[in-house]
Amino acid sequence: MSANPDAFQEALEATLPILQSMTKNLRPKPKATRTSLENLKASLPSSFEKPIETAGDRHKTPQPVIPITSDKDDGRLGKLEILKKSILTCTRCPHLVASRTQVVYGVGNPYAELLFVGEAPGEEEDLRGEPFIGKAGQLLTKIIGAMEYTRDDIFIANILKCRPDMPDRESGNRKPKPAEMATCLPWLTQQIELIKPKVIVALGLTAVEGLLGEPCTMRDIRGKWLDYHGVPLMPTYHPAYLLRNQTLAEKRKVWEDMLLVLEKLGRPISAKQQGYFLEKA
User: Fold this and answer.
1) Residues of the chain with CATH 3.40.470.10
2) What is the model's pTM?
């Protein structure tokens, strides 16, 4: 193959923007289209195609050429990027628009098999634009780690993308209203449709009610598989609940829910994981 530096440069310039657009904000594993990779490979100068041959190399058995392959581009990343821009500029709830610092889109892997859903951003999340980064979020990160995932492996989002506004002279966080959740839920529904998780974990009763659109009690549903548009849904306690109730018994309840999630996903469960938060004999 004769060297063609100009063609190689053109193919490289065509491929780089694809990789850059996929890595911007969404932090996915870079995946280029088959066509762009094959064009790049076809235009490589000979010096890129194989190493410089030495005298000793001439007597070696030629190795087969392994073709460049890539996962099929399903258009997910581009669609999520368009959706993200729409979510970040949403003005459907004027009272929330007036009080928010920014919209909290969500964070994690756009190809995640596991999606955690909370109720709404708090003060810290509103300031930084990322869900679950306060004390409850730090506990959730530990739970995710105990499941042998990282936050980059899964996806985390909320029913409500904006922090609920607080009355004058009051601090803290308030529970989202049913009308607010119903207005914002279509954004999350579109995220779920594009990410295609195999399992959803609803953190707290408000998240469950926001997803299902009907009142329920955590006592009746916790640890039981529900369904959200064909996706298995596991309700469990919100990490904030565990911060208020730090007994082994309550921690074990949440962990048993996570073991059911791991089992549903076909993940290996070690003896150590099986024994977390059990009372010592």
Assistant:
1) 76-274
2) 0.74
pLDDT value at position 9?
60
Maximum mean pLDDT: which of 7-21, 67-81, 103-117: 103-117
Across 19-47, average pLDDT:
48
Query: Apex CA 261: angle with CA 220 and CA 153, to 5°?
Result: 135
Q: What order do you get walking across the sheet with 107-108 strand by strand? A: 107-108, 155-158, 114-118, 199-203, 231-236, 226-228
* CATH number 3.40.470.10 given to 76-274: yes
Q: By the 8 A CB rule, do 34 and 71 touch?
A: no
3-state percent helix, strand, coil for the chain, nearest multiple of 5? 45, 10, 45
Full DSSP string of 69-121:
------SHHHHHHHHHHHHHT--S-HHHHHH-SS----EE-TT-SEEEEES--
Q: Which of 26-30, 51-55, 138-142, 204-208 has the lowest mean pLDDT?
A: 51-55
Do residues 150 and 144 touch, judged by C-beta distance below 8 A? yes
Q: Which of 118, 93, 89, 100 is nearest to 165 (CA)?
A: 100
The answer to whether residues 163 and 173 touch, using CB atoms and an 8 Å cutoff, is: yes
Give the residue from 223, 216, 275, 221 showing the smallest Cα distance to 253: 223
Report the chain's terminal Cα–Cα distance, integer Å. 72
Asked if 156 contacts 132 with a C-beta cutoff of 8 angstroms, the reply is yes
Rg (the chain; Cα; Å): 24
